[in-house]
Amino acid sequence: MKPNNISKYIAAPSGILMTLLILLIAVLFLQGIILQTASVLTYEKHRAAKNQTDQDKDLTEEEKRFDRIRNSQKEFLHDGTIHLVHRPQRSSRHSDEPEKVQIYDANDNLLWQGFKDKIPYQYLSWSGPRPHQYHRFTHKWMKNIQMITPEFSQVLEIPITSPDKTRQIWRYHPNKDFFIGYDTAGQKIGHIGSTGFTHSKDHAKPFGKFKSFTAWTLQHSHNPILLWQTARRIYQINFEKQHVRLLFESTESDIKMAAPHMWWSFKPGTIEHEMAKNYRPTIRCLTEDGKHHLIMRNPDQTITVTPPADWWTDALQLTATKDDIFLCCRDTETRPPSRFKPYDFYLQWYRKFEGKPHKEWIELYKLDNQANLHLLNRFEWTAPPGAHPKVSAIPFRTRIQRSVAVFSTPLYDLAWYLLGREFFIKHYRDKDFFAGFARATAEIRPASSICNWLLGLAMTVFTLCHAWPRRTSWQKLTFWLVFVLAFNLAGLLTYLALNHTSLIKCPACGKRRGLTQPNCIRCGAQLPPPQPRKSDLIFN
Amino acid sequence: MRFLALLRKELRECLPWLLLAAIILLAIGGFILRDAQLHEWYRPSPSRFPSGSIMKWYDFTIHPPLSPVGPVLLLTSIGLGLALGARQFWVPHFTRTWGFTIHRSLTRSTILCAKFTAAIIAFVISLGTVWLALYWYSSHPALFSMLPVKRVFIEGWLFILLGLVVYLGTALTGLSTARWYTSKIFGLAFAAIVIFPVILQWRLGWAFALIIISALILLSQTINAFSEREF
């Protein structure tokens, strides 16, 4: 292609695209700075208002009792008795002083009070929602370590050590989705995939779509064992023994969450080590179809609980002692709506309960080996109205956000509707460029605001006034008008950046005209010849 | 022949920058790798994993020994792009020597082609070969107990390509006749913006695609500006 053709067909659109991208990002930056300032101001205002409310709060004895019951931790003894463990003064997280607690029974009689580490009762221990964030390596971290960054991407390596030095390295290859082992001389030892250890690369099978892993060491060993979770399976990988064990496979739906409890070994002498003596190691696994699976060891057993449809499946907990299996179910009248609902939906839900008392309850069930539920105990209480404080006017930040979004392009809305709310929320915590784009789009999209369209129209009218005397063709003029309407402020700035031509008064018709066209757009007269100068005598 | 003469002239002008970039990368990169080889700071200590405990995941994520070389390579590449772009498209404007290049029996596309070829050769010789040498050194099992993955080598080349994008952005800014406070700086601004999505990307294919698209956007405008501008 000749350079002239390139200039005709590619350079002009490239220039528009480049300028538009730069100005979209510039507008986005400005909007971001304003929003962050608003966030800081809102937080300060909120904190000041909260301090004032706390000072003004003067609860009656009955309200204080309701408040205490609501905020108490509900614990069950192994026979199903419920205790309410209340912390009158929450100590600082960094304080070394042991915390004081008061223990009440279901009839609100004080049973015991003293330091937390001296509690004379043994309560049922449940698997937490998930291991601590530092102990759980998720698929988001897997993406993050592969990010290019100025320091290059990282690799996931499991070292196998003897007391003083590293003997083997097992490196995970995300593209192949299995581990390759190397000795200290850099030679390959073999491969570890879903089917176990193999010497040949061809026989190594991938694990499946990675979700998360947690690692621990056994007593008297420094070598990690991995609990490797994929979309449908949970494996336990022992690199020292080069052994892979499939713990669980969900054939019908993806695994939503897996929470181990007493699954790993603890150091002798610790509280966890003593507690583990009374429990079977378990992994509670929630699948997308709402079923709970309890994978147990000593002996190996898996049971599947299908909770009734009206239960709050996200708030269920399971545990297995040496003798029994228990299920704990919490619920409330004000159960929050499921994820990915529009903001107004949440606001509507919030407004329904604001400033009103509501019921909350907890139930304990015993499970038999066929996963049948037998109710052991139930406790119900009334939460005071303060649990859902009244929402005042629209927060300051939201008002600023709406004002700032007026200057955004309506095409953000189009992206929002085409890709879907779920896409944006799922990518919200990623750290790559597209996650950043998703976050920015969600924050500053105009949400079909009328003000946004009115401002767009006003800018289009301004563009028309500016472009009318400078116009060279109707097609170009129409393009720029549509462009400004579609891209709002960034579109207007792009138009101005690429069309900053001077105007002169046409000597023939006396009206203003641009200099990019040789003939006047109104009367067709040519540009006037330049004024004769003295040097023209030499050049001519 | 005329093209080769012009290419030699361009290479001669690029030579100081080419050598400077190669020396900086080789000296700093070599020092970092030698230090890594002697002290093995990239290898986590076995005492990190106490028995009978749950482990923190960041104990398993390892940076390659080449990781401190990455910022040096990226900055050198960007610096070389800026220097070559300025040398080829800004300096002739300030020294009023465009006429010597333009008024020859050559088409403008040949002149531009010679400039681009010289820049690509400069990048490949100064940064490409040094990067290749550093990677080869770090891949020696006798010297390092942890060998880098091939992906790191490709990422290094992405950094070199980013330098070429900066070069094109500088060239476009140098050729633009607009005022500096209007759209003149846009070429350079665009090249600077492109760096971020590339280094915040975890898919190599997407990173390459971003670089190619942005390079094409800048290249087409540079060709257009050079063909139509009056010198």
Tell me what you see in this structure.
The complex is a heterodimer of chains A (540) and B (231). Chain A is an alpha+beta fold and 540 residues long. Among the domains of chain A are: 84-122, no CATH class; 126-307, no CATH class. Helix content of chain A is 32%, strand content 26%. Chain A has helices at 3-56, 61-71, 139-146, 271-276, 343-353, 396-405, 411-419, 421-426, 433-444, 450-467, 474-498, 536-539, and strands at residues 73-76, 82-86, 100-104, 110-115, 137-138, 155-161, 166-173, 178-183, 188-193, 196-198, 210-217, 224-230, 233-238, 243-249, 255-261, 282-287, 292-296, 301-305, 316-320, 325-332, 358-367, 373-383, 503-505, 512-514. In chain A, helix 10 crosses helix 11. Chain A is extended and about 110 Å long. Chain B is mainly alpha-helical and 231 residues long. Chain B has one domain (2-228). Chain B contains nine helices and one strand. Chain B starts with a helix and ends with a helix. The mean pLDDT of chain B is 91. Strand 6 (155-161) of chain A pairs antiparallel with strand 1 (61-62) of chain B, so a sheet runs across the interface.
Globular, elongated, flat, extended or rod-shaped: what is the shape of chain A? extended
Strand neighbour order, sheet with most strands of chain A: 5-11-12-13-14
Rg for CA atoms of chain B: 21 Å
Unreliably modeled segments of chain B: none
* Structural class determined from secondary elements of chain B: mainly alpha
The value of Rg of chain A in angstroms is 34 Å
Give me the strand/helix succession of chain B.
HEHHHHHHHH
Q: Overall 3D geometry of chain B?
A: elongated
Which sheet architecture does the biggest sheet of chain A show? 5 strands, antiparallel
Mean pLDDT score of chain B: 91
For the termini of chain A, the CA-CA separation is: 39 Å
> Major beta sheet of chain B, specifics?
none
Integer average pLDDT of chain A: 85
Note the gap between the termini of chain B.
25 Å
Q: How many domain units of chain B?
A: 1
> Helix content range of the residues of chain A, please?
25-40%
